[in-house]
Amino acid sequence: MRLAFREALLAFRRTPLMSMLGITTIAFSLFAFGLFGLVALNIREALRLVEDRVEVRAFLVDGTSEEAIAAALGDVAAFPEVREVGYVSPDSALARSREELAEFRDVFDASVLPGSLEIRLREGFRDPVTVQALADRIATYPFIDDVRFGQEWVAKLYRVRTLSVLAGTGLGIVFALVAVLIIGSTIRMAVLARAREIEIMRLVGATNAFVRMPFLIEGVLKGALGGALAVGLTWLTHTGVSRALFETVFFTPAQASLGVLAGALLGFFGSLVSVGRHLRAVWKDA
Amino acid sequence: MSGVLRLDDVTKEYPRTGVALKNVSFTVDKGEFLFLTGPSGSGKSTLLKLLSFAERPTAGEVKVSGFSSATLRDRDIPQLRRRLGIVFQDFRLLTDRTVEANIAFALEVTGTPASSIGGKVGRLLTQVGLASKATSMPHELSGGEQQRVAIARALANDPFLLLADEPTGNLDERATRGILQLLREINALGTAVIMATHDLSLIMRSGYRYLELDRGSLHYDGTDARTLSRHQ
After folding, report:
1. Residue B81: which of A3, A203, A286 has the nearest Cβ?
2. For position A110, what pLDDT does the model report?
3. Given an 8 Å threshold on Cβ–Cβ distance, is B81 in contact with A285?
4. Residue whose C-alpha is closest to residue B218's, from B64, B10, B1, B15
5. Stretch A120-149: mean pLDDT, rounded?
6. What is the rounded average pLDDT for all residues in chain B?
7. What is the ipTM of this complex?
8. Given A14, A205, A285, which is nearest B110 (Cβ)?
């Protein structure tokens, strides 16, 4: 094991330029993937904020008793889809309208605005079908006059969300494949440069596991360094955009570590495949 | 003398290029020196690959020091290789390491304890006459010297059999004589040597047994140099 580490580190020392080139290539492939991930993450975050505003409003029949309202509040709050429910009295509805639509302040009159239940939904229950079903259920209360939830808006939002998930997954796979291909060929080049060493190790009777070890260590080190560099570059981009353009969110530490781990794994498997090819090869004729 | 190597009716066929060896049988005794000759493409290199288990025969059996091509598992091949020394025409040294590091490499990767590597490398370099070149880089050496380093590396694990594929093919007359002399000395210490060569004068002068291959078949097996000259 110590010899394997020494050989792996020797490879860095002997061919520093090639090693740097390898690490940089890995870093930039993962950086491209990371940037894509960052965009996807921020779109998801933005959509989540918008989705948070999906609400159902149930208007009450004029003169509904306070007991009925309290019972309804308790009932609705117990629905699994509901995160919170609140009562908006005609007075507070009026105050809110006056505040939000200041230019029409004079036309509002307490008698025009009914009281309502304001219902916010839990995550995962904001798709058009679920919202509609909830609205229908609430509409069955005798003291509910009308239920509104911006049906078209919710449907559109949901379509955008579905589309962004599909596009994100598709593009993510493409980016990941490109990264795997580029990293694979980088590592293959590094292994090819040391084909003579592999040949000699086999010639003198080193076991396959022994031959593989330095290359696997080298692959993991290069991959992890490339991955860390990619995370750093992505973070710099995030900071730059946040300062210059608009606030963006960054990966959680766990997600960022996953990037480094992905680099290490790609390095590991890339080396495994490349060395395997040389281990199966028969030596050339003199 | 007991046989260290036996081929029984061995045929090697490649999917693309066809038959490389056809029904070849012979044995080699412990400590024997054997030449292998024949025109290019006659099957010499294929035969050496079969002997080092880089290839398996299509039919027949190759037996080297108790390891049989019929039963040996791929993962046990390194155990056999540690008992063989292999030398090529183009030396195959690691050009970015010193002479002693090249030899030490063969010992390190086969698990020789670090404490005994230095002494062993020194003895091997003395044996091949290169004690003064331990810290030289391969490109600073002549062809003959580089081949000596390759031979020292092949001897690192005390092989019972040394396979040499055209070891003098790239060398001038003087270096060739020197390498042959070295191989004889190694042989005299008990290591069997099989040397493939195009150089018929080497065989004629030596008086050793030789095998002559022609288009994959064993054409001659004996010591009669007159047969050789007939084919020259």
Report:
1. A203
2. 56
3. no
4. B10
5. 87
6. 92
7. 0.85
8. A205
Q: CATH 3.30.70.3040 region(s) of chain A?
A: 55-148
- Chain B interface mutation, best of A204, A207, A279, A282, highest count of B Cβ atoms under 10 Å: A204
**Residue found under tokens 């509002």:** A108
> Is A207 within 8 Å of B96 when comparing Cβ atoms?
no
Of residues A197, A205, A285, nearest to B81 (C-beta): A205
Chain B's closest residue to A6, CA to CA, is: B108
Residue B3: CB partners within 8 Å, gap ≥ 6?
B27, B28, B29, B30
Confidence of residue A285 (pLDDT cuts 50, 70, 90): low
Go through the domains of chain B in sequence order and give each one's CATH number.
1-83+160-167+192-232 (3.40.50.300)
Kindly indicate the confidence band of residue A259, based on its pLDDT and cuts at 50, 70 and 90: confident
For A22-81, write each residue's pLDDT tens digit.
889 889 888 988 888 888 888 888 888 888 888 888 898 888 888 888 888 888 888 888
Higher-pLDDT residue of A196, B147: B147
Query: Could you tell me which CATH number the domain at A55-148 has?
Result: 3.30.70.3040
Whether residues B109 and A204 touch (CB distance < 8 A) is answered with yes
Give the mean model confidence (pLDDT) for residues B184-212: 93
Can you give the pLDDT at residue A108? 63
Q: What is the mean pLDDT of residues B13-34?
A: 94
